Amino acid sequence: VEATPAQNMYFFGMAVETEARQVAQLARKQSLHQAIIVTTRDQLSKRLQSAFEDEWDVSGGTILREIEFGNNSSIFSDITDMPGTVVFIAADAQKARLIRPYLPNRLPIFGTSRVFAGNINTLLNYDLDGIRFVDMPWLLQADHPAVMIYPRATPPLSVDQERLYALGIDAYRLIQLLLVNRLNTSLPLDGVSGQIRLNGHTFQRAATPVWFVQGQAQPANAPVMPGVQMFPEQPVSAP
Question: Which end of the chain is more exposed for a tag (fewer CB within 10 A), N or C?
């Protein structure tokens, strides 16, 4: 029997499985109804696969194919531009760079924040162009109201450490709201780690939709660079 959380106990975290579910929802909102899942052999990749597939199934989507990538690119040779199809890459940035160039350019491709290791190396990120994912405003929205308020760590942190730093900022803000009993009037919170809502005793975080454009990750609603085509809309066949 699961224990009921104590009245004053709340939970807040950074599970990437939540991101996998969020990108499944985003893909379904674009009327994509069948998915190709690309995984690797590590356990986190399998967890992302499971979370995406659970959300995809609940939303009425179908799984067209599951591919485990083991550095053999020929496994992608028969993938074509199929209307209504999304590719979900359940991999980190290093593996995603090897996978993305072998996928058709017109197929919508999604991942989680694991595909983003920073905007410093544009040349490496060119191999990720077009991939859509979700990540924290802290990393990609310098003009976000809350991001502008809080100081950066000195010296600069790694991308993964910056995510933890941002999570700590929002955890502190939530604690302050709890102490003054203002959760009901202050949520959802436009946090530096994402939009935060409360479900029972668990704070749920929705990250910002992002995509790679010419080697740079940027919010999906950012102005498009000259000569760059936004995500191409495909004709959608009935499920």
Answer: N
